[in-house]
Amino acid sequence: MSDIDIVVEICGSAGEGTISAGEILSRFMSEEGYDIMSFDSYPAEIRGFGKCVAHSRISRTRVLTPGKYSDVLIALNDSHSISQLPVLKEQGVLIYDNKPPKYHDEDKSIAGWLEPGMIPYGIPLNELAIKAAGNARGRNMVALGAFAALFGISQDAFIQSVKRRYGKKKQVVIDNNVDSFVEGFNWTRDNVRKIDFHLFDSSPSDVKRDQLIINGNEAVARGALAAGLHLYAGYPITPATKIMEILSKELPKKGGVFLQTEDEISSIGHVMGAGFAGKRAMTGTSGPGFCLMSEFTGLSVMAEVPAVIVNSQRGGPSTGLPTKHEQSDLNIALFGGSGDSPRVVIAPTSVDQCYQAAVLALYIAEKYQTLVILLIDFFLSNSIKNLDPPPPPDPRYLNANIAPGKDELKDYKRYQITENGISPRTIPGTPGGMFFSTGLEHDERGKPVYDTKTHTLMTEKRFRKHREILKEIPEPRITGWEGQGDIGVVSWGSSAGAAEEAVILACEKGLKVGSFSSMVLSPFPANALVRFCDRFKTILVPEMNYSGQFANMIAPIVTRPVMRLNMVTGLPMASEDILKKIKEIK
Predict the structure, then answer these.
(1) What residue segments make up the domains of the chain, in order of their start?
(2) d(CA 583, CA 563)
(3) pLDDT digits (tens, 9 = 90+) for 474-500
(4) Fewer CB within 10 A of the end CB, N or C, for the chain?
(5) How far apart (Å, rounded) are the C-alpha atoms in residues 454 and 573?
């Protein structure tokens, strides 16, 4: 099928190679020229038990979401896969082990849970794995071989992809994986009659083997490195840990400094110290760790010290749901600080935007001498996408500090009141550039003062910088119906892809619907939002939190009724749910 667009799920228990199989499949399909998006879910506990699902969408057209329902379910573990059957489509394909190593009770065999219309293919996964490699560890590769045979995938091409994937492993590892794949492929080809209609194009066009296949955490790390990051200090926490792992290897190669600290308070302290010293610095965390950093966030604003914090949201509150998706840290990102503490909040909407957002965050933090929060989430952190290598950052993003001139150093005022709010900043050691810096309110030289006039002037100065930042942020993304319409969908972060896809589908059905999203949430492009909303009768805000945090933020800005679609399922927002809500409103 030249217009193929299918979702494949592989479900198993931790330790069965479920996630690896999904990654291998996605990587191969990308190499074959398909657009892919994959998203894995797994238990919060250390490996050894628990349900894992590798979810991959494969399409000949641009993919914006991973898709809610699956076309194919590959069951590596019956008990876990039974609970995954509700998201298999009515005529979906099930690949399962018809000769499991242990006898299943009737109610624990996935074959007994099939609904009418579903298409089962029983493959002796365990038996074939043992035949291929002498043990059952290769059941995931046997399953991929069966999938390839059923869906018209070239055996030779897949084998070469597997060899590239395991190229740095011992030869026995490569051979065992290849042999297991071949065993599954050949048995299925020779013994199974295909009765479903899915079939991949045997010769897809526009193959781009040089594409990156990365997730949002990797994109953030790459963007930070490209933007001249000098120091990263962090403490492991799901789902941001991968950023730290990558930078621990790559940052020292570029002359930078990596520190694994004893806790999140220490990590933000190191970032503040490096920022004060004139170095680009960043830390990464999730909601619980971000809470611990709140005192230092206020210091960054008051002392005007550049700092970047990546907050990869997960289900909350407290330690909450470490390996589940949510967008519920918006309030603390925007307002989580004592007093009036304006901060920049950048929330990328896709994996490729994660790279751009990291570059932008380090630039804005340095130029405007302020706190920048890069707000991603579990889905973006772990969602794998294929994309073209991003171009290097614009040179103006790489050295943005505004230093004082010689005349200004004669009577240096570190916190000089300026029209745009940016004060000339010296780096420690600059002759004539000494100044006071504390968390107390201060005059232009940094000396602590407490009078009404100074506090008012300095507060205005700190907010004035945000008006300047508005001039530099990317334009909001607006798609869909261009004239006067019925429903405007306003979204943020990773939900924006689902919103855009839902709007595309709605427009195809003749509905007058448009979508709006901005990568920068603070300062927020309110005027652009008002212009967009004025074209529609009703505004719909879909987001993955219970209280409608973003809807609460924009409701005072717009003059239209604001409808809400709030979900806390632990899974990414689905375009199907947004489209359903659009139809209900219409």
Answers:
(1) 5-209, 215-397, 406-469, 477-585
(2) 13
(3) 999 999 999 999 999 999 999 999 999
(4) N
(5) 46
